[in-house]
């Protein structure tokens, strides 16, 4: 009993030493993952300024000061230890080097990302065809290659890649992977409830 208690305490203390980051391209499932980690037991760093809507019914889980990372606003990052914060891929490279990060990086089929993004732009009255699908895909792929190269070069950064489709295809396996990556002390049953198939819209057929 005492050994189990000390083991659990060690995992909790270890968890508080690093910042959990959720990242990925737009429409890749980052908001869903934020909610999943929240119910799993990691408090989110968010200001709730951007509220839920038809595109993200569970909310966006954003923290406005993240957008100022490239402008030098980094003092808040140490306060994020033991918490989870969503950081867009472009700003990962501006995270300060004096913290340890564990990144849950969401991946999704590129055609699904583009379809979802176009639908969101349409719902907001913006032109979904301002850039061709081919050009958008090419820009995203080059950007991802650059970001992933940076991640692999950082000694203070660990990453786990989670495929959006796999979260619905085999949520138990993916949640187990995430739990182990983040210290192994999460409420996996509650996390499982978040993987709602109704959230998986704009999906590409399995045969495609």
Radius of gyration: 17 Å
DSSP helical segment count: 8
Q: From the 3D coordinates, which CATH architecture would you assign? A: 3-Layer(aba) Sandwich
- Average of pLDDT: 84
The helix/strand series, from N terminus to C terminus, equals: HEHEHEHHEHHH
C-alpha termini separation? 52 Å
Domains, number: 1
At CATH level 3, the topology is: Rossmann fold
- Shape descriptor reads globular
Residues in helix, %: 40-55%
Provide the β-strand percentage band. Answer: 5-15%
What class would the helix/strand composition place it in? alpha/beta
The first-level CATH class name: Alpha Beta
Q: Give the total of beta strands.
A: 4
Strand order of the largest sheet: 2-1-3-4
Task: Give start-end ranges of low-pLDDT stretches.
Answer: 2-7, 9-13
In CATH, what is the homologous superfamily? P-loop containing nucleotide triphosphate hydrolases
Biggest pleated sheet: 4 strands, parallel
